[in-house]
């Protein structure tokens, strides 16, 4: 194969790799602080809509779910937002005892 053709192919591969890396980085950022914007790439659940339940509501739902499914009470619930879903970590005696996911208005045990 001609060396100039190899150079062009190598440059094309490098450009495609760089485009893929930067494109994913740029689209993963919130635009103007709005994680639900079209270009944010962060929300697959409610694009342009309301964010759903608040962290406090999810903490209460998580603790209530744990109590109803185990018959025990937990001390703490921590909510983490992953963009397209939120996860609720239920702790008892400082140890993780249950992990729940909240997406599209529904709570799932994971």
Topology:
Layout: H1 3-27, H2 55-70, E1 76-81, E2 86-92, E3 95-103, E4 106-109
Antiparallel strand pairs: 1-2, 2-3, 3-4
In words, what does this structure look like?
This protein has about 110 residues and is α+β, with helices and mostly antiparallel strands. The chain has a domain at about 55-110. It is built from 2 helices and 4 strands. It has helices spanning about 5-25, 55-70, and strands at about 75-80, 85-90, 95-105, 105-110. The chain has a 4-stranded antiparallel β-sheet, with helices on one face. The longest helix is centred in the first third of the chain and has 25 residues, at about 5-25. Mean pLDDT is about 75; it is low at about 30-45 and about 45-50.
Features:
alpha+beta, 4-stranded antiparallel sheet, 2 helices, 37% helix, rod-shaped
Tell me how many strands there are: 4
Structural class: alpha+beta
Instruction: Please tell me how large the radius of gyration is.
Output: 21 Å
- The residue fraction in helices comes out at 25-40%
Q: Span between N and C termini?
A: 53 Å
> Into which percentage range does the β-strand content fall?
15-25%
The sequence of SSEs as H and E is HHEEEE
Indicate the low-confidence ranges by residue numbers: 31-43, 45-50
Broad shape: rod-shaped
């Amino acid at each position: 194969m001609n060396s100039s053709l190899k150079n062009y192919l190598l440059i094309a591969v490098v450009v495609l790799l760089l485009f893929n890396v930067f494109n994913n980085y740029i689209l993963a950022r919130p635009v103007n602080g709005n994680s639900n914007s079209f270009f944010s790439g962060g929300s697959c659940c409610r694009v342009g809509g309301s964010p759903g339940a608040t962290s406090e509501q999810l903490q209460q739902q998580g603790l209530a779910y744990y109590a109803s499914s185990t018959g025990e009470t937990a001390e703490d619930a921590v909510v983490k937002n992953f963009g397209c879903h939120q996860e609720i970590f239920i702790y008892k005696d400082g140890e993780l005892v249950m992990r729940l996911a909240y997406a599209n208005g529904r709570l799932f045990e994971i």
